[in-house]
Amino acid sequence: MRAAVLQEYGEPLAVEEVPEPEPGRDEAVVAVEACGLCRSDWHAWQGHGEWANDQVPVGQVLGHEPAGEVVETGADVDIIDVGDEVVVPFSLGCGSCEHCQEGRGNVCHRGSALGFEPDAPGAFAQQVVVPAPDYNLALLPDTLSPRGAAALGCRYATAYHALANRVAVSDGDWLAVHGCGGVGLSTVQLGNALGARVIAVDIDDDALGRAANLGAVETVSAATQSPASQIESLTGGGADVSVDAVGISETCRNSVACLRERGIHAQVGLTTAAEKGQIALPTDQMTRWEISFVGCRGIPPTRLSALFELIATTDIEPGKLVTRDLALEEVSDRLAVMDEYDTAGVEVVTEFAD
After folding, report:
1. Scanning 74, 98, 179, 192, which has the fewest C-beta atoms within 10 Å of its C-beta?
2. Which of 270, 295, 320 represents a domain boundary (last residue)?
3. Which domain does 226 fall in, by range?
4. What is the CATH number of the domain that holds 134?
5. Segment 317-328, tens digit of pLDDT
6. Which stretches does DSSP call E strand in the chain?
């Protein structure tokens, strides 16, 4: 089968023939119909994460936002069947440990991260193997196409987990979203659906326009002045919840600074080589005003059904975020332009064959 393989950090991926996966007893093979291209793929391609013992190894098949059809299952798979259309979360749990059983499979110590670890080859490929499929795979609802589900990917899922599970956004909350790329726009759209009053922050006017179209009630340009002061003025004291959807020092600190007393900062974006996982924060201010800082990684597989229900009962459409369909050979070029944040919305690989 064809797959896009990381051969050298920052260099074009090699689209080459690799062996088709064969499922173990508790595994399933999914034929990939669509796979989102995400900034996390860019981090992997750049070789980031060494500072956290989290660097993706050379030789890895990248891609972690797939949807497709189950084509083969192992002997111990009971629930998932061949022919099922499924969504594959990137944060794969073992299905049996304490974290998994309590609905926290995204932090399972025995789990794996699809597309980021040697034992979890990714989905920029015609097929991908999934461990513990009865636990990890979610049946694709009728309200979503594989393309729309790939747009949902880790961005939509992470945004939902951050807002609904880690922060518990309430109706009427002021929600600031710093960065209006794929995960930021997902956060804007979901925040609006959950009843928050969303303020979108970016340095790009086009990105702010897209955020307004997806439900942001206010937009703030960070190109010329402090977002914190603008947000404080708009809200009469600061945001209740703020999300850093970028991961650089400036956006993280802006997110914390724009909060009112007892506000909650949610960190979604991963840091770059400039920060190496370390960002200085106004800890005295956070202590004085009881500001909370929470990390958000993917989504527990068992929580995907709640996200699907929200999509089915509201007018949000993940497919609206898709701005470009890609062939496998185009992935490298699109990763390269992420160096300058030169992408809009969500781009999805939908062509895998020659």
Report:
1. 98
2. 295
3. 158-295
4. 3.90.180.10
5. 787 778 899 999
6. 2-5, 14-17, 27-37, 66-73, 85-87, 91-92, 112-113, 127-131, 138-139, 174-178, 197-202, 218-221, 239-244, 259-267, 292-295, 322-327, 346-351
